[in-house]
Design the sequence.
């Protein structure tokens, strides 16, 4: 059984590793869906393996205006050419995310972002 304090420390440690877009919403969402925390850490490791260890991933919340539901997006900023970025993204899907995404319960998605 996790205490609130231990869970908060884990969340704070995790959030330090990401660029947070609208930090308050991300923090609130992850408090409500704390089962995503281990998956986010694993995603970071998989992204580092396939893209680059220096990849500074971002977390943001996107709301669906039609039904008010929200989803966490783990954003992979990249300067790679589109073809190479999509090849790596496809590799991430095939080697890890397609299977791992089941544990996200439709609450998280991973997307590339061209910068």
Sequence:
């Amino acid at each position: 059984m996790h205490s609130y304090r231990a869970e908060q420390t884990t969340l704070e440690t995790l959030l330090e590793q990401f660029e947070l877009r609208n930090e308050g919403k991300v923090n609130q969402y992850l408090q409500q869906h704390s089962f995503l925390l281990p998956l986010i850490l694993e995603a970071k490791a998989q992204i580092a393996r396939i893209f680059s260890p220096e990849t500074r991933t971002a977390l943001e919340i996107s709301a669906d205006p039609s039904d008010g539901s929200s989803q966490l997006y783990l954003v992979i900023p990249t300067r790679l050419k589109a073809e190479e970025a999509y090849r790596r993204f496809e590799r991430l899907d095939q080697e890890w995310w397609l299977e791992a995404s089941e544990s996200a319960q439709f609450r998280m998605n991973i997307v590339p972002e061209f910068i």
About this structure: The chain has a mean pLDDT of 90. The two ends are 41 Å apart (CA to CA).
